[in-house]
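Sequence and structure are no longer studied apart. To make this concrete, we show below a single chain and its fold as tokens.
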Amino acid sequence: MKNISKTIKSFMLSLSILCFLIIYQSCSKDDENGTGTPVATIADADQDGIADDIDNCINIANPNQEDSDSDGIGDVCDDDLDNDGITNDFDNCPLTANPDQLDENNNGIGDVCETENAPLYPCIDGMAGPYPCNGYDLLGQINVFILSGNSNQEGSDIWGWTDPLDGKEYAIIGLSNSTAFVDVSDPINPIFLGRLNSSAGSSAWRDVKTYNNHAFIVADNVGSHGMQVFDLTRLRNVINAPQNFTADALFNDVGSCHNIVINESESVAYLVGCSSTNGGGPIFVDISNPTNPVNLGDYTAVGYTHDAQVVTYSGPDLDYTGKQIYVGSNGNTDQVVILDVTDKSNVIEISSFTYPQTAYAHQGWFTEDQQYFILGDEQDEQNFGFNTKTLVFDFTDLDNPIEHATYLGPTPAIDHNGYVKGNEYYLANYRAGLRVLDISNIASTTNSMTETGYFDTYPSSNSAAFNGVWSVYPYFESGNIIIGDIEGGLLIVRKSN
């Protein structure tokens, strides 16, 4: 009995030592927390404070562990939130199961989740359905598949049109294969009216602007696309939507063009980044008669322009009051140019400038008083590794523009297109979604812009890559904002009440 007892005691001692060693090995060094107490090492791949063995989304941070359908997969990484067999990207009602996808009015919202006068997803506790948000509700959306009719297509540029006859609001969405038209007058129940197919094949870059109740559409890297012209008043009485529309005119003095800029006060379209002999500089087109565009010539001296803004100048530099002022963001030439384009046959270069850590001068926009110009560089986040960087230039003296301030956003996402409305700057921030910045303090060299809200259409990541929001249009009288998303198509948001 003594021997048995000794054996048991020895076994228990060994077991105790083994348990101690296991516990000790799972702890970090005493000095790592400064307390002298060992700290247990817990696997937490996404660093959200939830251990991997209980985390419902191991690789994407979600400290709140939201799981709408209670399937054990966190909402931020669940590609089928309602478990109906239709992935979120293609589901017309992603939070309510509807495997039949019934949509009686063909507006892109499934019948089972269509609710009168209520946002599709209100922003509650930082989430609007599957989308991170701050102060902006999702009113409605129509995915790329419905808009394009093809699951392999992507979204690009977006613009808006308000019918002067009845005040109805319409979204015009650029897609790889076409341009889609959507009645967003009732943003909860948007109506897809139809699409205008590309005149020369598929393109990742399709840009659109409006003038005098017509849409003007260009596409890049797609041969002899030219500039399509579409009479928007045809959207008033669409029967049997969606329709396959045809263009009302085609301006074929150009091939492919990256962007189109329209100064409505002079009835002139500026086609930039075109595949023509002028090296991508601006081509001037008279659109006073929209369906009969007239080529007014071009300008070659400053080289390729990626995007531009043209205004009838009313800013602080009295030397140029009333002139047509062109500000071109000239891509990889690492410069911004300011031109007097009043006389299309005698363009005058006013000035040009660059800035530190240039990568690709992409797009910019005047403040409403035309004293400041807000510029985005599309590739500096990737090239230099900092967070979203937006530059502010003082244009008080157009002959001598001055770098004024720099805004760094909260994420590494790339900035794309940005537009000013009043004291707010609406930034298409790719993977970080729509970001809204208060610019009422823009005259200051510090804290000149402050983020006040956002709607993130790409929840899985805010990294510096080309996904998510391409462009935004904030100019509707209703206050509704339309978003053109590469993967998501059309989203309609509004500031939360």
